[in-house]
Amino acid sequence: MNDIIRKSCAAIAGGLMFVTTLSAQFFNENSLKLIRALDYIQAMYVDTVNQKQLVEAAIRGMLNELDPHSTYLTADQVKEMNESIQGNFEGIGVSFNILNDTIFIINVIPGGPSQKVGVQAGDKIVRINGQNVAGQKITNKEVMNRLRGAKGTKVTITVLRRGVNELLDFTIVRDKIPLNSIDAAYMIDNETGYIKLDRFSQTTNTEFEKAIKKLLDQKAKNLIIDLTDNGGGILDEAVMLADHFLEKDKLIVYTKGAHTPRQEYRATGAGLFEKGKVVVLINENSASASEIFAGAIQDWDRGIIVGRHSFGKGLVQRPVMFPDGSMIRLTIAHYYTPTGRDIQKPYKKGQTDEYEKDILNRLKSGELTSKDSIHFSDSLRYYTLLNKRTVYGGGGIMPDVFVPIDTSKVTKLYRDAFRTGAFNRFVLNYVDVNRKKITDQYPSFADFKQNFSAEPLYPQLIEFLQKEKIEVQEQDIENSKTTLCRLIKAFIARDIWESNEFYQIYNDDDPIIQQALKILNAYDSILNSASSQ
Question: What sign results for the dihedral spanned by CA atoms 463, 464, 469, 473?
Fold first, then answer.
């Protein structure tokens, strides 16, 4: 029998039993059938087969029959996932974009290895380790592969800098580069702090504590936690975040499965914001750890949830590693909110494609645009633990205050501008030519936010889109003007400063943010109401 196939199947079986060695009793008739099938294919199939690909396909096929979130990851995919979860990677500390086959450095991380040697935002990388990368149709992944590397190793980049005649060489010693999970934290008005959380990584709690202390120093009495489009992450980080808002011993979440006993996670009483008004923003892309946090806040009447029905991802995955660095993420339990609501939305085994169409189906049914299109059966009715407000189960978190998705300004012009990357190219071009002019005229972000207007750039954007062969209709030009002008200004702010400044402009006209600010004035009446709004 083929030794490679036997070892692969043994690893699969061992992983599924959560042991490091294969149990003899696991070799039942069905598992032996799989091994024999693989062996027959290798020995008799008409063409040469790739053993590794065949085994990986078999694993994916098995997992696809279980649930939508049990998955197989290759060694490279595991590495990428760990970088996101760990909150750091090893590299040179720049963010970049590729425009017309040219690598533009958008931002240089303060204190990072690139800033230390003098690399600046706006520089164009033309060579990496002496090899030409300009005009080579290089991809983002290829650039990252060349710039990233083990801590302590060196890479030399050659850059073209506007206003400097000769090329500049920089030899950079790679180091640990943080991947922040908090995109923005600032005072949105005199009493209200705002925190935008992109994901739950190993650094989330540390980042949050730093952010909340800064906001408290600025006299924040209220807090808006923005979890829109936050796909989740590490359970423990969601628990620690909820702990900052809940009193000691209050249940945050519990898990249980057929082979996994109930496990409870409770607050420690060491939180930094156990008093004060809290508004949590969610939408249809808020999932997993985001839903754990939102569910705990809602069930304990600790805050008001605003936005749209969340994704409904409430399955617990356990990682099972294979010797080659690949991994299975196997579902072992469900997440439940303190009232006992199952966060996971319904699914049919083996019908992953239909499951993935759920958000599109919600849009077609009107659920994302009208609260009247949302219906729950009485069997899904639950009551919050303090004020006995009505909330609903059935998967995901239904907000207390519904905010419909705004489709009026998302015209075909808007969609095509972003789908093709043309909008981003326009802003990159503008910033590349005008970076010094902008920073001279607006020496601080506060000056820029107050005085810069993107309206004079709007005709230039439309002309640029037409040159990019994007269909432009007069009605779309007018309908999307306000939104696109706001985004021009926000993207310029991001490229000159950072994402924190981007959101300070972007949020000024965001419907969910504006609703959250209004809700703070009616906060107590909503929390004391007999049913959700």
Answer: negative
Give pLDDT, residue 26: 54
Report the candidate in 206, 259, 203 with the shortest Cα–Cα distance to residue 233.
203
> Of 405, 425, 454, which residue is a domain's last?
405
Task: Look at the chain and report how many structural domains it folds into.
Answer: 4
Contact 278, 306 (CB under 8 A): no
Amino acid at 240: M
Predicted pLDDT of residue 12: 44
In a domain, 146, yes or no: yes
Q: What does DSSP say about strands 124-128 and 131-132: parallel, antiparallel, or unpaired?
A: antiparallel
Residues with catalytic roles: 288, 299, 313
Share of the chain above pLDDT 70, in %: 93
- One-letter amino acid at 373 equals S
- Do 248 and 314 belong together in one domain? yes
Q: Which of 5-9, 71-75, 423-427 has the lowest mean pLDDT?
A: 5-9
Q: b/e per residue, 171-181, with b = 16+ CB within 10 A?
A: ebebbebbbbb
Amino acid (1-letter code) at residue 296: A
**Residue 249 and residue 287 share a domain:** yes
Give per-residue pLDDT as tens, 223-264. 999 999 999 989 999 999 999 999 999 999 999 999 899 999
Residues 6+ apart with CB under 8 A from 57: none
- Whether 496 maps to a domain, the answer reads yes
Domain match, 17 and 92 both: no
pLDDT (0 to 100) of residue 299: 98
* Whether residues 29 and 139 fall in one domain: no
**Residues 6+ positions from 469 with CB-CB distance below 8 Å:** none
Residue for token digits 């935008």? 196
Same domain as 155, residue 32: no
Angle of the 204-217 helix axis to the 235-243 helix axis, nearest 10: 20
Residue 319 corresponds to which amino acid? P
Whether residue 277 sits in one domain with residue 129:
no
Query: Residue 460 sits in which domain range?
Result: 412-515
Full-model pTM: 0.83
